[in-house]
Description:
By secondary structure, the chain is an alpha/beta fold. It is built from 16 helices and six strands.
Amino acid sequence: MDEVTDEPLYRDRVCGIDIGKAGLSVTIRVPSDKNPSRRMQETRAFGTTKREVLAVADWLRSWQVPAVVMEATWDYWKPVFYRLEPEGLECVLADARQVKNLPGRPKRDTSDSQWLAQNFERGAVRPCFVATPEFRVIRLHTRYRRDLIQERTREKQRVEKLLESAGIKLSGVLADLHGVSGRDIMDHLVAGERDPRALARLARRRARAKIPRLEQALDGTEFFTARHAALLDAMLRRIDAQNADIVEVSTVIEELLAPWEEQLQQAESMPGWQRRAAQDVLAETGPDMTRFATPGHLASWAGRAPLDHQSGQRKGRGKRKKGNRYIGAATGETSVSAGRTQTREGARYRRLARRIGKDKAQVAVSNTQLKVYHKLLSSPGARYQDLGAGYYDKQAQARRKTRYHLAELDALGYDVIITPRAGPDPGDAARGKQTPAA
């Protein structure tokens, strides 16, 4: 090994791994045998197969290296991380962008592993969140279910485009094109029915009040040919298959998350949160909230935090906060759902939407929801307690009364010092804390 000089260290023995699809570049750095103030390093190349990764573990043990750092390079880091972790090594995952932007010499492809090891031993690398082994499996299922739902949504949009191209304006009348009435009408179209009146009379329940409008929307089926029918049939069969897959995956998710039913119930107690959203978020974060230092850390990691607009030189302007896109998708849905409720979060969404727009209001409410989620899961047995849709109005009224009475006393020649009365924080209920009964 070659001896090199370096700064004071936070770790004596470290390993940096640059990960590729088929190869690993591994660098270890240990104290010098001749001079403890100097360092020794060596870089070797390994493959990414099981045998090669275990050879890396043996090499590290031979040099008594307890900790390994690697970049989050697509999904290539996962088999290496998951293989080295059971070998008793402390595995740290580093954000590639963070390591690249660290001050020092440029980060080059030929010396990636050395640069990682040097930053790691100086304590300049912040570890990324990595799920526990059981939640890695749960994540695979919840993420696949969301991908299936997105694929199904795209297929439904293709169905609507097909009908529009054939002159059938069904989606302009029915709120849900793929509901019971819409699906029955499309099935009869595929079967060869072209009479607008007969198709309109297939409407069910509340849709029967729209029969005259349905007849007008379906008046134009002469453009709907046998080719259109065959393509529509293929799309509907694909949607049915996706529905079956979603139900099957959901059943497996219920079984996998059964031991964490209490945490799911806590999440579902929040406004706008349904079963699927609670499962998706819990699968991403896990039940242990001590892995996030504060509720704000969780919101920032999920990308549900305000953008950082620095005043110095910058290339362009950030359009969105990067974070966990699966939590972002779930909380995007829950924030909109909460905005329709007569709750404190609903009032917050509506107030912000009027002032800064729906998109930013959605992120702000998602931020609040994740902070409440953190508080709930940090307090076993806690449930969300709403402060009511009039929470902000009451606060504003209290401030107006305070200003009025202060002005009156000031006019009488009094200097007044206001001290809050000791008691429970009124925001505890919104943050998920339980208060003792009187």
